[in-house]
Amino acid sequence: MTEPHSASPDVVTLTQENGIALLTLNNPPVNALSTALRAGIVAALAEAAADPAIEAIVMTGAGRGFCAGADITEFGKPPREPFLPDVIAAIEAFPKPVVAAIHGPALGGGLEVALGAHARVAAPSAKMGLPEVKLGLIPGAGGTQRLPRLIGPAAAVKLIVSGEPVGGAEALKLGIVTEVAEDVVAAARALARQMIASGVAPVGLSSDAARLEAARAGRDAFEAAAAEVLKGARGAEAPAACVAAVRNSLDLDFEAGMKAERAAFLSLVAGDQSKALRHAFFAEKAAAKIDGLPADAVARPVRSVAVIGAGTMGGGIAMAFANAGYPVTLIETSAEALARGQGNIDKNYASTVARGRMSEAEKAERIARITGWLDLGAVASADLIVEAVFEDMGVKKTLMADLDRLAGPDAILATNTSYLDVNEIAAATSRPEAVVGMHFFSPANIMKLLEVVRAEKTAPDVLLAAVEVGRKLGKIPVVVGVCNGFVGNRILRAQRNDLEALLVEGASPAEVDAAWNGFGFPMGPFAMLDLAGLDISWRARKALGQTAEIADHLCEQGRFGQKTGRGFYRYEPGERKPLADSEVEDLAKAIAAREGITRRSIPAAEIVERLLYPMINEGARILEEGIAQRPGDIDVIWIFGYGFPAWRGGPMHAAGNIGLARIRDGLQARFEQSGRAEFKPAALLERLAADGGSFAG
Ligand code: 3HC
């Protein structure tokens, strides 16, 4: 029998059954630890303490999870009591057993609450982790002190610096929970009953001397793990702060460790990096929202998919669908091309298996979802057809007209073009309303970004379907309008506006790349061009009637980058390490001599400005033209598709930190010096800079 027990605030309820209280966090949608929820927990604990009939507490979350952590919307406001570390201390100090029953997300402060309990039970669905690092933070409510005591400092530092959650089974293996059960609350009750029966007073992690000793014994493993996880930090502050905090758990007593953790957390929360990452978190959610659709629009159903073209893109796209459970028909024109494509898919999955990330059975299951076909007529049964053929308007239009003839009447025709006019492609069919762009990024089975291109006539149910399918693939779909290159590649082109001038004026490709790496990008523009293939941008330039003297010259010599062993750099056979090539420098020198330019050493800061400001300017034009719905969408595209350092928040957010007036002045000076229209500050940038405003509004 369950009897209501509580008059505490609605966000926390306390009920009691046979001596065991059920404390439920109930703050929809994700039980974020708002001030009200924190106060509710304290009140419920006091109430339970005062009730002699209560012998133990089981803590659970209402709805779809345990607790998603601190309320991110409260960051940046003055902290209000009760503070989360104190709430968790109160849970831990509760004199009777407290057991956390975890289903769904237990993230950040949510996991820290569970670590305050005396025992934890998880459902298989549990998603337990400390993702604070992704918000530019360290866990700020004891996670860096209690988790190392629970699972050892090496495992703790890996979990904390990756920010990635683990499921119930993995949590059991790590020792975060002692049991995995479908009915977590029942299992937690049973455990609580055992703890009561044992008669042993519960011991919190903060005062468990044996665990601390065991953790200290793991110091060497911790230092090795810490060095490993810091390798990918690239300018982000939070990973090193996480490592330092975990190290404190070994070096300091609990109180001192907590004090240091809190101080580091508060300093990070007020800093630019965390603000940028919080912006990215909310921008990613906002990007899913599509303006201007009828309220009653629903997505056209997609159950089966056909992919045309089994090249690198088509194969990756087929894998992305197969991974998400869709049956895929993969269509090629020749048996050789199909066999090659399927062979690549097989190899790709095999390497995932070899790295221990997939079982043989899963591999077989996914491959079985992909059926190869040589006849375009096989599209007849597909709800969604994605073409990934050669990037040429004529080829795409002919194919689309064929698909229009052969596809079912309700089929969606998607093009994976990366810069062509989707309106023109749609006009080649009798159903332009069913045509949408789905611009995947290579490798398509891995990259998170999906640009969903809304053409003039794309119907709402088709647009919604493309976005919904994107989400089911685990991607971040961002809706963009039609223009050459859409949002991502158009800004990429702007990033390259000044590249050749930098070489002519005296920078080497390696210096430019190093400056961009220093800004936080994993790869510099020249290394990226060489990797992607110089012929690709050459073709795109030719289509636009544009030239780039150095790159064009390299292409004319058959220097297409890594694949030909030479591009802006040269490569030893079979190697990927870029090596300086004197021919490129000689070419730059010759142009400088011809133009009367005195070459000089160019500081990294200037290089970064000359790459970044044109990107921001192009972003402003994209906003003026309504190609992107909001500045945050541009940021999301650049963070997830192009490696923009997330801790800088994307180009449009970063612009706010630099100052729009400074960017305008930099562009204006470059415009006057070069006479090139692409550097002219966009009207929106001019206006916002004059008003002292920012893109965010
Ligand atoms: N605070 C405030 N709002 C949050 C939130 C949080 N911690 N987590 C999610 N939300 C909001 C979302 O913004 C969204 O709002 P909207 O409907 O208005 O757009 C709504 O809750 C639902 O979220 P999702 O759409 O993301 O729902 P999903 O079911 O897809 O995902 C989730 C749920 C896995 C919990 C995901 O939202 C998530 O990862 N949240 C962030 C978790 C996190 O980073 N926690 C750490 C916070 S920092 C911390 O705890 C500090 C501590 O150490 C002191």
Distance between the termini: 54 Å
The ligands bound in this entry are: 3-hydroxybutanoyl-coenzyme A
What percentage of the residues does DSSP assign to strands (E)?
5-15%
Q: Provide the structure class.
A: alpha/beta
Under CATH at level 1, the class of the largest domain stands as Alpha Beta
Shape: globular
Q: How many strand units?
A: 17
Number of domains: 3
Biggest β-sheet description: 8 strands, mixed
Mean pLDDT: 95
Family: Belongs to the enoyl-CoA hydratase/isomerase family.
Subunit structure: Monomer.
Organism: Pannonibacter tanglangensis
GO molecular function, one term: enoyl-CoA hydratase activity
Key terms:
alpha/beta; 2-enoyl-CoA Hydratase, Chain A, domain 1; N-(1-d-carboxylethyl)-l-norvaline Dehydrogenase, domain 2; 3 domains; 7-stranded mixed β-sheet; 30 helices; globular; disordered N terminus; binds 3-hydroxybutanoyl-coenzyme A
Architecture overview:
- The protein is α/β, with parallel strands linked by helices and 697 residues long.
- It folds into three domains: 2-260, Alpha-Beta Complex (2-enoyl-CoA Hydratase, Chain A, domain 1), CATH 3.90.226; 305-484, NAD(P)-binding Rossmann-like Domain (Rossmann fold); 491-626 and 659-691, N-(1-d-carboxylethyl)-l-norvaline Dehydrogenase, domain 2 (Orthogonal Bundle).
- Helices cover 50% and strands 10% of the residues.
- The strands form three sheets. An eight-stranded mixed beta sheet has the order 12-11-10-13-14-15-16-17, sandwiched between helices.
- Strand 13 (384-387), helix 16 (393-406) and strand 14 form a beta-alpha-beta unit.
- The model is unreliable at 1-8 (pLDDT under 50).
- 3-hydroxybutanoyl-coenzyme A is lined by residues 29-30, 32, 68-73, 84, 105, 107-109, 112, 131-132, 135, 139-141, 143, 285.
